[in-house]
Amino acid sequence: MKTSNRPGFALPMALMVMVFLTVGVATAFTRVQSEIRTDQDRQAKADAFAYAQSGLEQFAVNRALYGFNPKSPAISESTRIAMAGGFADVVLQRVRTKTATDPGVYLLRSRGVRAGGSMAFAGDSRHTVTQYAFFREGQMQVLSAWTSLSGLIKNGTAGTITGVDNCGLQPTVAGVAVPDFGYTQSGGSTVPTGNPPVSYLGDQAATNDSVKVDWDGIVNDYMIWPDVRYPSDPWPDWSGKPNWYPVIRVDGDLDLPADGQGLLIVTGNMVINGSLRFKGVILVGGTIYANGNNNVLGAVISGLNEQLGVDVPESDIGNGTKAYIYDSCEIENAVAGMSALVLLGKTWSDGWPSW
């Protein structure tokens, strides 16, 4: 039987199959690369959005951390907040000036940038969010140089407790403010000076209502967020930072370790010995025992746990030439940390059209 001779048939077929396989593999590879790039681009865009929102919130919570005046915003402020793999450029701009009855209103813009996009040759991914805010100024009602919700004992006539403003800007307040019959002078005549020297606030319920400090919110809800939590954090070092007035929180008792300044929150009892000095505001849930020649410029409020239904003994100012002096400037410095931008609800915007 004679067979036909078809030379070279297998080679073209093999080449054709190889071409088809190569094209299929290349197509699959391209598709995979495209999907990877799409996923990476989607992730980069999500990161840019997250950076923008995080930058907006971080700036609103703590402008002072980025070097701005905590007491009052400027007409315009801007900063760059570093993120892992990118950054957020934040701009605060005043759109309505503060009046006697209304706070200033500001527009807060934050542009998040995710560096590099999905590939080395791709551009950055950007996203902008905005929200309006008003500025809430830190304030604190001060009834006296030393207000004690549980009463106060003063030993001897040495030392000074005065409601005369050391800063000279505000009217004189009481030297001491306590519940009815809550001040005891042990030896000598009444030491406090002020208008009046001793202010009696009524029974315990009336006294608790008179002291406009939300102690429950501060203690249990962290209404005032601390800069320092002592002793978990070390006692602050003010070297080179004379204008730093941090919020210092102590959960439990405190034996004041050194001089300091700021807003000091102590949930338990506090002891001040020696010649220590504190500038600002001291809020203590329990008692304060003070001995020696220590002094405070600003204001002291003790016995605040009475607002929580806890029976607190009288605070005791022992012997020594100490001074507790009302100072409105030091109080203003201390409560400046309570100032904050308050974001207005239903004003958040996604994708601001221009930067």
What does this structure look like?
By secondary structure, the protein is of the alpha/beta class. The chain has two domains: 45-137 and 340-350; 144-338, no CATH class. It is 21% helix and 32% strand. The protein has four helices and 22 strands. The strands form three sheets. Strands 5, 7, 8, 10, 11, 12, 14, 16, 18 and 20 form a ten-stranded parallel beta sheet that branches. Strands 1, 2, 3, 4, 21 and 22 form a six-stranded antiparallel beta sheet that branches. The chain has a six-stranded parallel beta sheet with strand order 9-6-19-17-15-13, with no helix packed on it. A hairpin with a 2-residue loop joins β1 (76-83) and β2.
